[in-house]
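A further point concerns the way the authors explain their paired sequence and structure data. The central task, working out the structure tokens from the amino acid sequence alone, is never made concrete. I therefore recommend that a typical entry be quoted early in the introduction. An entry of this sort, consisting of the sequence and the corresponding backbone structure tokens, reads as follows:
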Amino acid sequence: MSRPVKQFLSIAQQVDYLRSAGMRIDDEDSAAEILSGTNYYRLINAYALGLYIDNEKTKFKPGISFGDIYGLYVFDCKLRHILSEMLEEFEIIFRTNLAYHIGETYGPLGYLNSAMFSSNDYFMEMLAAMQREKSVQCKSPIVKHHDENYGGDIPVWAIVEILPFGTISKMFKNMLPKDKTIISRSVGVHQYAFLESWLRSFVEVRNTCAHYGRLYNKQLLFPPRLPKECDFPSNRIFAVLYLLRPFLKPQASISATLRLKEALEHHPSVDRSKIGFPANYLK
């Protein structure tokens, strides 16, 4: 039997409810101000996971404060910014190398040739996705330029700039093994099966970041395949951080590490195991 929808609570009522559930609120005005700018559902329901003493989520564990929860939220924002920048750098490298190989091997419009792909069904889905994207972006400079000057034919090095990363990753997955091997090695990954797995995880995390979703305490739906030497879980965010770091330029890698270390030091309520950090990492 379904439950009735929960009733609306004013900001003051939200603060009162949290206090009645056992949460320590040291500064009521500050808590109210935060809740006024950060949706209760986004803040409390997301970052209080694991901090209740009952399955019904009506009582917090002793000592849990509003500051603890907000600290997790702020840390997650910092983590999301760090990961977004890392993903951006990888994504540009990957798009560039994929487009270069297709252009060099199959020609500017080679991606429109079904012989380049393993599954014709997936190829047709990709073409449909491309057409939808071109329609959505019909006023973008790339689409307009090629509509007006080239009959709508867009070379691979241009099409990769307007397609979503998810579509690009599916294109790669459907390519022939020989081509996937060349592209993988061009970005520094010896076996394409690893890169296929990583792309699925990267797309998931990228979409989470794009929608300001929660990374802290997130279990990945598509855990990446890890090298044998890795001694940390594949279904937590650290796995993605670990895999992205080699793709960064040296200065960017150092910066990401320092920013992450600083964020952890400033937010002691963070449970590193919820991100999958190995013991003593960054300590």
The chain has twelve helices and no strands. Residues 11-64 form one domain.
